[in-house]
Amino acid sequence: MKKTRAYAPASIGNVSLGFDVLGAALQPADGSLLGDEVVVEDAAQFQLAVEGEFSTKLPPDPATNIVTHCYYYFVEELAKAGHKTRPVAMTLYKNLPIGSGLGSSASSIVAAFYGLNEHFDRPFDEDTLLLMMGELEGQISGSIHYDNVAPCYLGGMTLMTGQDSPVTVSLPLVENWYWVVCYSGISVSTSAARNILPASVEMKTALTFGRQLGVFVHALHAGNTKLAATVMQDVIAEPYRKSLLPRFDDARDFSMANGALAFGISGSGPTVFAVCDDQSQAQNIADWLSENYIQNEDGFSHVCRIPTQGACQQQVNDKV
């Protein structure tokens, strides 16, 4: 019986200056995994099992799990495209905390769709899969956006085009940047984090947003990393969302005073990130955040890089 195992990494949505249109995949610098995994295998009927460190944080009914929704959406689209369908059993290894700002739902969705597409011999192309992923992500967050699913699926740092094809384009990576991420342990839902935002922004704010994003993209292509770092400021969401994150200002102040080039909220929070060009400084900031930003035993810090590869197949073992 065929068995496919897929891994999808954590991600930073927005990357401060790119609200809903910019995202980056994450990979711990020590080579460990930071993301969800899904195993797909042929079965007599569909079923879903959920395991992993954060599995108990999910609703117990498999019918409500987003991976179940991914399966039924996938086979519906498979049938529409004229392909044969068959039932499978799926296991979600929930390794990312829910409501963490690390693209937790996106990781489950991407691992599910990537695993299903591989298991069924790749019936859908990259853009089609991304549109499907965005649709399911929208069911959770309340709006379709790709700032987590795109980098999670494709790797790297991705900029959303607003088009059906290509859905996203890849931006150059700064090879000597380290990305410190710290999850405080509390949960902030994407919908709640969106509700705290104003319905509109002032013209001055909109102009600053557009200028920063344009300068950032130019700077990356030009290799001007100093310029890229100077515009990594969130003028859209952070002024409102930081009220949801205890000790955010303290964390920012310490990080910026100790070598960080930029500091911000990962996605909707509560995870924060700091960008450094020195690994020892990055580790120092990670250690401080572990001691001072984490709120409970669920929290963690990692020094990460941005991987060029996103979702991938892994060797299938009896245990994941």
From TrEMBL:
It comes from Alteromonas pelagimontana. InterPro entries: GHMP_kinase_C_dom, GHMP_kinase_C_sf, GHMP_kinase_N_dom, GHMP_knse_ATP-bd_CS, Homoserine_kinase, Ribosomal_Su5_D2-typ_SF, Ribsml_uS5_D2-typ_fold_subgr. One of its GO terms (biological process) is threonine biosynthetic process. Its EC number is 2.7.1.39. The lineage of its organism: Bacteria, Pseudomonadati, Pseudomonadota, Gammaproteobacteria, Alteromonadales. Catalyzes the ATP-dependent phosphorylation of L-homoserine to L-homoserine phosphate. It holds the Pfam family GHMP_kinases_C. The gene is thrB. The keyword Protease does not apply. One of its GO terms (molecular function) is homoserine kinase activity. ATP binds at P97, I98, G99, S100, G101, L102, G103, S104, S105, A106, S107. Its main location: cytoplasm. Keywords: Amino-acid biosynthesis, ATP-binding, Cytoplasm, Kinase, Nucleotide-binding, Threonine biosynthesis, Transferase. It is found in: Cytoplasm. Pathway: Amino-acid biosynthesis; L-threonine biosynthesis; L-threonine from L-aspartate: step 4/5. It catalyses: L-homoserine + ATP = O-phospho-L-homoserine + ADP + H(+). This is Homoserine kinase. Residues 218-294 form the GHMP kinase C-terminal domain. Residues 65-156 form the GHMP kinase N-terminal domain.
